[in-house]
Design a protein that fits this description.
Layout lengths: L1 E5 L2 E15 L2 E14 L5 E12 L4 E7 L7 E2 L4 E10 L3 E12 L5 E12 L6
Antiparallel strand pairs: 1-2, 2-3, 3-7, 4-5, 4-6, 4-8, 8-9
Organism: Formosa maritima
Protein name: Co2+/Mg2+ efflux protein ApaG
Pfam families: DUF525 (PF04379)
Length: 128
């Protein structure tokens, strides 16, 4: 598990390899990840947007940005957490992801970014 705290918001990431399949005549490697966003600050915060950088070992880079996470914009009071699962496809058995969430502090009304730490994606059969 990879963890990081930014401005009182703790991000924890667990990854899994889901399998391989062919799409458009190319091998695809499917990975899952589970993220827990925990509010360790004294203020209520809401997640508004997210941005991901997805890398694979073939030097492919994909940027994904949008509102919320899996269709939700969780509001977290102090001590609360939100967990969700998602996934990505790579064209190689190794890669990594990192990014940030843009959140709003409801006490100060200020928006701020919370780092999503870099986490590795690797197919176990490809490891020595």
């Amino acid at each position: 598990m990879v963890q990081q705290v930014t401005k009182g918001i703790k991000i924890s990431v667990e990854t899994s390899f889901e399998g391989t399949f062919y799409k458009n005549y190319k091998m695809q490697y499917a990975f899952g990840y589970k993220i827990t966003i925990e509010n360790q600050s004294k203020d209520s915060v809401q997640l508004h947007t997210r941005e991901w950088t997805i890398l694979d070992s073939l030097n492919n880079i994909e940027i994904v940005a949008g509102e919320g996470v899996i269709g939700k914009k969780p509001l977290l009071k102090p001590g609360e957490s939100h967990t969700y699962s998602s996934g990505c496809l790579l064209t190689s058995p190794f890669g990594a992801m990192y990014g940030f969430y843009n959140m709003e502090n409801y006490t100060t009304t200020k928006k701020f970014n919370v780092a999503i730490p870099t986490f590795k994606l690797s197919a176990p059969f490809a490891l020595n």
